[in-house]
């Protein structure tokens, strides 16, 4: 035992020093770290699991939606789109395909296991140091400036010092630990959008599913492109209203929703719903995981018994953790509001755009409330949404940027998180290089750097 302690003490005697420290290795954190590394910053990425990908891999959030407006104009590019192209090149994604649910114009299927390895390859190409199996539980401040993060790992405590930090934890953990103001849930009662335990099924006869849809169009979402369905590859299905209503499962949801792939007989089911629990409370999370897994088994059994095309199917995988739509988010120098989204508002300090509608899964009821983006079908996300109040040398990217409860229901989607993550990482690298705080950075310099990496800001 003494020998082991000595070895670990020697290994972690000195702090890890970096220009940019990114906490949280989900889609936002991956893109933040790559962006920072490509701009020459010594970058460290801290991830609690033994793999990267966050909700996309641990929670089976699939597919990525959406890179386009409802009319089909692409508004998210950059590192996010580069990842898609590289996945396509190795047969791990078909790229952007039509959404046969009809909710958005395109969705982007991908192979999560390939994404895990490709992401690490890209991090290494950018010179990023990945520290996995590590959880940040303390920060050190020098005045109002975050100076260091402490992680707990299998090897003990590790101090990581940086010039600029990026919070891509999804839960604003770093901002919360540093004392930056955060908020959670809707204004009237603090309730958040429900959690969902995603699961996969194999052995599905998708041709039979499509035949049933063509013969029974009224049993599916009103925007399903039934008239085009024979020519389109089936990418997603929302409906089976008759079967779902007859089953009366104890799940507060009003239809079945699943997406196809990545294998030809495979679907990802997004139908469970766990409400009224707090994704930042460990006891609530423990209960949510159990309830979600029970619901997954109930839904899978129902689908096998009742849905055409699922007669020979089986449950093949359940998420390593429950999918979380909403927890804490920072209170930033600007808070994106629902009116900004719906009106398709433009901002001078735009660092990302999105064409995904407001998509609120009811915190207490059965339904989903959608509000569509007007104008050209996209809205801007301003740089100020990435800058927390009160704490300096800290940025946020991904799900925990500064938004209202309603606006979060669009910015939380993966491609948007990838885009804001890239912006946060690039801003952190530029600020570190210039020796300034991120809020002092000329946004035009940041925008130029983002465009150089393929970001779409117009």
Automatic annotation (TrEMBL):
* Keywords (A to Z) from UniProt: 4Fe-4S, Iron, Iron-sulfur, Metal-binding, Oxidoreductase
Recorded hits in InterPro entries, A to Z, give: FAD/NAD-bd_sf, HdrA-like
Stretch forming the signal peptide: none
MF terms (GO), sorted A to Z: 4 iron, 4 sulfur cluster binding; metal ion binding; oxidoreductase activity
Q: Which Gene3D superfamilies match?
A: FAD/NAD(P)-binding domain
Q: Indicate what this protein is called per its UniProt record.
A: FAD-dependent oxidoreductase
**What organism does the record attribute this protein to?**
Cohnella thailandensis
